[in-house]
Amino acid sequence: MPPRTRMSVRTGRTGAATVAAVLALGSSLLASAPHAGAAEPDPVPVVDYCQGQCDDILPPGENGNATLVEILGNKAFGTHPAHSDDQLDRYDGLVAGHTGLTDQKLNDFFNDASFGVAKDQVESVTSPRDDVTITRDKVSGVPHIKGTTRYGTEFGAGFAAGQDRLWLMDLFRHIGRGELTSFAGGALANQGLEQQFWPQAPYTEADLEAQVEYIRTHEGPRGEQAMADAQAYVDGINSYREKSKKGRYFPGEYVLTGKIDSITNIGEIQPFKLTDLISIASVVGGQFGGGGGGEVQAALSLLSAQQKYGVAEGTKVWESFRQRNDPEAVLTVHDGTSFPYANRPDKAVGTALPDPGSVTTEPLIHDRTGSAGTNAKAPVKAPATLKKVQGIYDDGVIPEGSLPGSGSGAQKRGMSNALLVSGTSTASGNPVAVFGPQTGYFAPQLMMLQEIQGPGISARGVSFAGVGMYIQMGRGQDYAWSATSAGQDITDTYAVDLCEPDGSAPTKASTHYLYRGDCTAMEKLERSNSWKPTVADSTAKGSYRMQVWRTGYGIVTHRATVDGKPVAYTTLRTTYRHEADSIIGFQMLNDPSYVTDAASFQQAAGNIDYAFNWFYADSRTAAYYNSGMNPVRAAGVDPALPIRAEKAYEWQGYDPAANTAAYTPFAEHPHSSGQDYYVSWNNKQAEGYASAGFGLSAVHRADLLDDRVSKLVEEGGVTRASLTRAMADAALTDLRGEQLLPELLKVIRSQPVTDPDLNAVVQQLDSWRASGAQRKESSPGSHAYTYADAVRIMDAWWPKLIEAEFKPGLGDDLYGALTANLATDESPAASHGPSGAHSGSAFQYGWWGFADKDLRQVLGQPVKGPLARSYCGNGDLSSCRAALLSTLKQAAAVPAAEVYPADGSCKAGEQWCTDSIIHRALGGITQKAIHWQNRPTYQQVVEFPAHR
User: Fold this and answer.
1) Contact 334/630 with Cβ under 8 angstroms?
2) Dihedrals φ, ψ of 158, to 5°?
3) Looking at the whole model, is its pTM more than 0.85?
4) Is the pLDDT reported for residue 411 higher than 70?
5) What is the DSSP string of 547-587?
6) pLDDT, tens digit, for every residue of 34-87?
7) Spatial contact of 432 and 942, defined as CB atoms under 8 Å apart
8) How many CB atoms lie within 10 A of CB 745?
């Protein structure tokens, strides 16, 4: 990260030049930080250098609020509030429309993302204050916020957020605070959601207030401005909250959950506070910008390997599956530049592996009463007018598994993709970019689209609702930027020795630990929740208490023994207690006087603490930077495994009070400018940059992009349309069919297939492969795939073939431990996907890389970074072939009704429906299913022809 005041505090390094720069910045920023409503100089006129070549889209629609009457209309007649669903068909249409796409047809599937609104396109103008207007366009209803003062501009952004996402913001501040059940009802999914999110970022109110103050006092003038902007944003939200309550046009969910009486209007929408923004940031940043962790589970699979093969051979086998630096992995920076980070040391020190069988998970839930932990229902007597909406949240206000990283057995998922081509390979000579965040599908979306123009701010794009002071991904006057989740290792697990203050022998249940030689009490953090049935959620009355223990090394997650002594395993991430510090980087990205070229963009991105890959394009340069608070670890420490909690093995410069340390400098983060092209789909960033978990291997979904974009670059003359076609083609492709099926067929066809029925199945699969291995309708609206049977067979075959290929050689225990580290499959039909079923995103994590290497080893082909052993048929081609044919025959016989079981949206056997994207209702409005696409939720297509 570039030096800034915060870095000097955390690392103790500040040069004279940096001090001078900060002082100069302070003069300019503080001079333009007015009191509410104070007059400011007229802003410099905004010039749009994209000249009509910037487009974007965010389904299902901008409007995410619905009154009670509108919710009832949706349930009774299927009607939708204006601009709540008008982007669905346009987004869905790219499935059929991408093959003949031209630059002239882009606006059939995307919206013009030019600045401002033409006079004949103005739908409404609102002025919540004299110094700001909110203009909404006819096409999409997006708010275009224009302020004459900084305060007014941010107030307008908050007011617009209230107009479009009031209920959603309320939900997420309660999720972040671990209070979802008390707020929205005790549905089992709500219980599960707060039980997964709150322990990741448990805070007291004082903790949240301290984070606000830290930004204000440690981030220099930009920190002061950021908190002033945030306060204005909160003021705007509260202004809309009050007006909508008095005017009775507030979201109807407040009535259905018992917050406000629909007849008397008695009740309250609780005011928003600055600390609510910290809570929301903890949910958003933690889920999309985290990285690392999971070291206890990694240690268990390592122990299992060592128990099977012995320590030396077992470690070798485990490392070959861990694949920290697979030489065959697709890279974002592919020019050979290396950025060493978090690699395995030659001789590890301080590793704290648990004794076999000693690990237990720390209990979270205590003092259950009533329906806690159950799905017991006790419906209230609802008025006749509300019968249509009774029980709409019985399965949770956010269905289980819908949010990334949530749900039973979920793993933290990073999503989003990016395709950029430098001007040397484009038709115009200017870089072209197609990129966006892949954040699941919700109604309303977690993000909202907006344009903000005011003193020091000039941008259009998306922001996560509730933290939308600045555009987080979008475009400026002559540049655009986006991000993908990076997931590098910014979280470590420590083993703290337990003790008793009286000197007696500790046990695994002890609540004191040794901190730098002193027996120190753990801090107990608690959250008590209770609920009762409402019209929306019929869950019976109940309550429970959540409890975690906080130490100087983070939150206790497990207990175990190490070398016979009791320990607690804790999780420590660099961004804990710094959930919103990234606001400084976003402020810079929105400031046209700061971002003037690729280098200044990279500096701005370096001020974002969460782990993201940032991409940039202007008329001259395509560029990339990997952000994140990467800790400088003690020499010899292995970050992939638990570490002893001793001074010698702590992060360098670690201060537990503020959770600060020394961080790797800006130049050591993967970055690049002007490379021929860039692709990212949460893949490996660069050579030497170790993966934080399993799965960045020889086959990755980013290969679907890399293969297509590299071909375009080789041919030259890339356009916005051709790059969009490449993205859309990859979005419909089954990774297994394109990347693995050729090798599977080579093994099978190493001898003639004599069974005629089985040979017909093989031919079916080969025909599907030859056609592109896509999961695509035979014609628009048919709801049937062209190669439906081949897709069904592959979906049934993959889990069977992986088990037959690996389980006999690994054994039950090690196979089970490794599948706990990395699920074997993530097809669109898999309910365990990154955001649950119907979530679009697919093929991010699975055993495709393992299978690819193993099959090539069996075939005698060259493999870089091979698995330590051959598994399919124990390395014998004939035996491997027999295992594949046996499982293929089984899979071909599995009926569609078993491959695609019924769920709340689809009947058993409905293949297209099972794959389909369904916008999960976070409020009372539901949306129709659309065709599966493995594609960003919000997406930009940009090509700047000019620059300032």
Assistant:
1) no
2) -65, -40
3) yes
4) no
5) EEEEETTEEEEEEEEETTEEEEEEEEETTTT-TTTTHHHHH
6) 333 334 445 567 999 999 999 999 999 999 999 999 999 999 999 999 999 999
7) yes
8) 16
